[in-house]
Specification:
Chain lengths: 103, 359
């Protein structure tokens, strides 16, 4: 499983992607990541329609890729559910994460 | 203490009040100070403070200065303590009349907010973001290593930065960033430009313009002396020197896609995709940004004096939610004619022509 957090907008308008790949994690942390993904409901989330833009707030896309499928879901900063925030915080806190600039 | 409870003070001449404040019976001193603070315009109060220094003690002058400021500028800085959205505004850390905090982020947010309020009030006569003296609320240390600062419709929010995108502490330290965000508030209360595509790029543009003007005024710079950078020194150096350049759009950081001309306008959908930036609001703002830079440097001198005044009236009185670049161009031309004259009108037209918005 690979989980990525794409962030754009913000005051900079710069887009970044932060990724954690299960292959780089100890087995028990792979389980933790799977559990956080399930709790965040990424696979069950309905496609988001255009949200009203808010000045300099970040936009998020959570991408989950595993052997069976690739899914993604998008949120505005103010609309991030608590469970998704927890997943994002966990990804951000992993020393194995990679971060790349997309713009 | 309200001045109205001391009618004798409320109608007394300022010089008499100053004498009472410095030399009168103790019971009357506070009343005289309150009356001085409440009865004069901001400009008169500042002038009076200077005159008072000649025949009143520093103690009296400093107490009056505190009352003057509290009469018109109200701000509070809070600490989110890294807890995120569920803990806004956070722990109250510094109010308007409090001395500096031991936390640099708190003091930076406070100072940048004060500079922005004073710019609005002293240059354009506007009392706070809403024109009605609303309190300015800022929260620092938002979230953990949060790489952003934003206006959430009610208050300012600043992250510390991760050290991977933004330098830690840099977002609150940059006056143009603080002013940029607060001017999103001014826009909300005036033109309320929709945050999408061209109207969103105008929303960003006006915040960049007044962000840099607050910095330029703070530094006492003319248009020729200014760097015209937004967020100079906030990104980690390996990424670039700033977030945006109004002088040379597209050169601020590696991957900067800002155009300087309509020929290079970047068409993007507004579809919630973080890669598309609400339809390119931080990208295409380079076009009107460059027009303002061209105008300000053509006119010379302090950019907030003429170019800034034209832009401020246009934002606050002439544009609406769906305004496009051409609307901003036509309205600034009209406002230049009304406020100044044919020389300034022609300079505004020429600036918009050079970036391809007017033909």
């Amino acid at each position: 499983m690979r989980v990525s957090v794409v962030r754009g907008g913000g005051i900079a308008g710069i887009t970044t992607r932060t990724t954690v790949t299960g292959d780089d994690l100890p087995a028990h942390d792979v389980d933790t990541m799977s559990r956080l993904v399930e709790r965040a409901g990424v696979r069950r989330a309905a496609p988001a329609g255009p949200a009203e833009g808010r000045a300099d707030q970040q936009l998020y896309e959570i991408e989950v890729v595993d052997d069976s499928a690739a899914v993604s879901v998008r949120f505005g900063e103010e609309d991030l559910p608590r469970e998704v925030r927890e997943l994002v915080a966990w990804i951000d806190g992993r020393p194995e994460r990679t971060r790349e600039l997309l713009t | 203490m309200a001045a109205t409870t001391h009618p004798n003070c409320a109608i007394a001449p300022p010089d008499l009040l100053a004498r009472v404040a410095s030399q009168g019976p103790a019971a009357q001193r506070d009343a005289a100070l309150a009356a001085l603070a409440a009865s004069a315009s901001m400009r008169t109060q500042r002038s009076l403070l200077g005159r008072l220094r000649q025949h009143a003690g520093d103690d009296v002058v400093n107490r009056l200065a505190g009352l003057v400021v509290s009469a018109v500028r109200r701000q509070t800085v809070y600490d989110n303590q890294h807890q995120g959205r569920s803990f806004l505004p956070g722990v109250r850390t510094r109010g308007e009349l409090d001395g500096p905090s031991g936390d640099p982020a708190v003091n930076d947010a406070f100072d940048g907010t004060a500079a922005t309020y004073d710019f609005l009030h002293e240059v354009f006569g506007r009392d706070s973001l809403d024109g009605k003296g609303m309190e300015l609320v800022s929260t620092v240390h938002y979230g953990v290593d949060f790489d952003n600062a934003f206006w959430n419709g009610a208050q300012m929010v600043y992250g510390d930065g991760s050290g991977e995108l933004f330098i830690k502490g840099a977002l609150t330290a940059a006056k143009e960033i603080v002013a940029h965000e607060l001017f999103h508030g001014v826009t909300t209360f005036t033109a309320d430009l929709a945050y999408s595509k061209q109207s969103g790029a105008l929303n960003e543009h006006f915040s960049d313009v007044f962000g840099t003007l607050v910095k330029q005024r703070h530094l006492g710079q003319t248009a020729d002396e200014a760097d015209w950078l937004i967020g100079a020194g906030t990104l980690v150096p390996s990424l670039g020197r700033a977030l945006r350049s109004m002088k040379e759009p597209g050169t601020a950081f590696a991957g900067d896609r800002q155009p300087a001309h309509m020929d290079d306008y970047v068409e993007l959908p507004d579809d919630n995709d973080p890669r598309n930036d609400n339809g390119g609001v931080h990208i295409n703002s380079g076009i009107p940004n460059h027009a303002f830079y061209l105008l300000a440097t053509t006119l010379g001198g302090q950019a907030w004096g003429t170019a800034g005044a034209i832009w401020f009236r246009t934002l606050t009185e002439r544009l609406g939610a769906s305004s496009q670049f051409v609307d901003a161009a036509e309205q600034t031309v009209q406002v230049a004619k009304e406020m100044f004259g044919p020389v300034e009108q022609s300079a505004v037209e020429d600036a918009w022509r050079q970036v391809g918005v007017l033909s």
